[in-house]
């Protein structure tokens, strides 16, 4: 008998698109954790399914590849105009699909990075299906996010005497109103961010080793799918970056009507935890819990998986 009696990878018609959903569980009686990945456009179900070993005895795990990326990528999606509202509606319909499929009234929503934007807005607009919101690498305010993230890599380059990095970072310059001059410039900053521990605290690798190589190695995706995944990710980022930078949850999300649990890495400089902490303390919610991860940066689930699973079980009382 399979370790997972229900282990599905299936397409669903959601909001006018064919989107792929991954479901894995040992029992339909378990509560559902619905993961919303980051990016935009960077799928991570292969990492989620591996890191969540400590939850297989109590949870059903659901991963959704968003519109235009991962297994949901189609060549036609490269012609679409993306906006945040469409992705929030996609999330709502995906949750509705999962609830019907698994016989649930609500799910626990886990939002990571870009996915934390969708998770917060989903919880704000459609709380009837959200049992609680769990944030990780929480994004809150675009302009300040990019300012602090750039200042971090510049200061680290100076501290380490990394002259090549200093030349490159000064050449691209600080973001203006949250925007770099090009996507390439932003990728330069993000690459140094990862190398300096602001993205991953212990494994300080560049974008290729930290994101692309795991996709090549995982059985969750076929090698033939990778070119489309890269094209989809680049398209998603190009389409959505301006809207992301314009976000301000201090202004637009002062209150949520569902419990909020924040699982934040102390060293996160991708979405600086200092911003998330200020928003969390200002936020009105029926129940709030903040959980620090001292050996993590942007992705505590993957950097401290045992602790993350243990703390989430405790917080949700499951």
Explain what the structure shows:
The structure is a single chain. This protein has an eight-stranded mixed sheet, with helices on both faces. It has helices at 45-51, 84-102, 114-125, 142-160, 163-172, 183-195, 207-217, 226-245, 249-252, 273-282, 300-303, 305-316; strands spanning 6-14, 17-25, 32-36, 60-65, 107-112, 130-136, 260-265, 288-293. The protein has one domain (6-142, 222-316): Alpha/Beta hydrolase fold, catalytic domain (Rossmann fold, 3-Layer(aba) Sandwich), CATH 3.40.50.1820. The two termini are 25 Å apart. By secondary structure, it is of the alpha/beta class. The protein contains twelve helices and eight strands. The model has no long low-confidence stretch (mean pLDDT 94).
In brief:
The chain is of the alpha/beta class and 318 residues long.
Largest sheet: 8 strands, mixed
What's the number of helices? 12
Estimated radius of gyration:
19 Å
What is the CATH C-level name?
Alpha Beta
Order of strands, main sheet, comes to 1-2-4-3-5-6-7-8
Q: Specify the structural class.
A: alpha/beta
Q: What is the level-2 CATH architecture name?
A: 3-Layer(aba) Sandwich
Shape summary: globular
List SSEs in N-to-C order: EEEHEHEHEHHHHHHEHEHH
Distance between the termini: 25 Å
Mean pLDDT, all residues: 94
**CATH topology group:** Rossmann fold
CATH superfamily: Alpha/Beta hydrolase fold, catalytic domain
Strand content: 15-25%
The number of strands is 8
Q: Poorly predicted ranges (pLDDT <50, ≥5 residues)?
A: none
Number of domains: 1
Percent of residues in helical segments? Answer: 40-55%
């Amino acid at each position: 008998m399979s370790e997972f009696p229900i282990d599905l990878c299936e397409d669903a018609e959601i909001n006018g698109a064919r989107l792929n959903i991954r479901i894995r569980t040992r029992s339909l009686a378990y509560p559902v954790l619905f993961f919303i990945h980051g990016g935009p456009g960077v799928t991570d179900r292969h990492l989620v399914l591996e890191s969540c070993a400590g939850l297989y005895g109590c949870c059903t795990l659901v991963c959704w590849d968003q519109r235009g990326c991962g297994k949901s990528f189609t060549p036609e999606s490269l012609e679409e105009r993306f906006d945040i509202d469409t992705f929030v509606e996609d999330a709502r319909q995906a949750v509705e699909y999962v609830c019907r499929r698994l016989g649930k009234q609500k799910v626990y929503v886990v939002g990571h990075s870009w996915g934390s934007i969708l998770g917060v807005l989903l919880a704000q607009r459609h709380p009837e299906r959200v049992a609680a919101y769990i944030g990780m690498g929480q994004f809150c305010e675009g302009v300040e996010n990019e300012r602090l993230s750039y200042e971090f890599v510049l200061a680290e380059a100076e501290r380490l005497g990394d002259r090549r990095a200093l030349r490159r970072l000064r050449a691209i310059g600080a973001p203006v109103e949250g925007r770099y001059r090009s996507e390439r410039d932003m990728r330069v900053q993000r690459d140094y961010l990862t190398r300096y521990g602001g993205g991953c605290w212990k494994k300080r690798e560049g974008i290729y080793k930290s994101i692309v190589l795991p996709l090549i190695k995982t059985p969750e995706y076929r090698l033939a799918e990778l070119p489309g995944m890269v094209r989809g990710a680049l398209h998603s980022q190009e389409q959505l970056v301006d809207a992301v930078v314009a976000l301000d949850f201090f202004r637009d999300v002062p209150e949520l009507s569902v419990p909020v649990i924040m699982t934040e890495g102390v060293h996160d400089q991708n979405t600086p935890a200092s911003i998330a902490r200020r928003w969390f303390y200002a936020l009105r919610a029926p129940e709030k819990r903040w959980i620090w991860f001292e050996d993590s940066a942007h992705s505590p689930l993957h950097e401290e998986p045992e602790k993350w699973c243990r703390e989430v079980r405790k917080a949700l009382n499951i």
